[in-house]
User: Fold this.
Amino acid sequence: MQIRKLILPVAGLGKRLQPLTFSLPKNLVSLRGRPLVEYAIDEAAAAGLAQIILVASPEHKTQYEKYLLQAQKRYPALIFHLQLQPEAWGDGHAVLMAQDLIAGEPFAVRFCDDVIVDRQPTLPQLIRLAETKAAPAILLERVPEEEVSRYGVVRGEKIEDRTYRLQEIVEKPARAEAPSNLIVIGGYALTGRVMETLAEMWQKTRPAKDALRIAHALGRLAADGEAIYGWEFPGVRLDCGTLAGLHYAEEYLAAHQIEVLPARS
Assistant:
């Protein structure tokens, strides 16, 4: 199993980042002078990936086309694609919009508003785990128990340092019903079987907002006894999906004099 392609779902409207997103797509909003999407692309470059697939909303097509003209020059070793997601039917549906380009191969997914600061880039380490186990692997973070109802929460068995074999993923449970305080955040290294499962589920899903989630497919595979792994990364996640979070990220990176990865000339 070798992962060579990354899907970046960038179709979100970024309502929590208004007024910045009145004129810019959410993932082109700047963090320390660089668009959020670029931090994820840097991780892909560090992982030695070959292709980046951006899945955007039709209304942002022109802006992403313009950005990708610049990105291709900055990252000459990467091949970029732009796919469109017509409606906000969930992150799993966004992934399905790249199905033809994935062509049954394993792939990674990264959400750009989760910027992660670590000694080593996070995505290459996650991909290494998935390739070693020949199974899906997802990023996990431990949060205070009072926050679990905002996230997908996992139940799993710790098998190695920071690594878990997962039995269940519960979407936004009540605090009293949460199986743990380990949550799923915006990074996945997935097998072609996950894409197949999303396609099967979509055929049975009535289109609705957030109807199809990656977590739903992973939960089904885990319930069927298939191996799903989670990695509790050691770094710091900066949630840039809100104005307050973006402001904090700016202050954090400036205070610690951190470039998440070195800026490219």
Summary: The longest strand covers residues 152-160. The radius of gyration is 17 Å. Helices lie at 36-46, 61-74, 91-96, 99-102, 122-133, 192-203, 214-223, 243-255. Residues 52 and 80 are 5 Å apart (CA to CA).
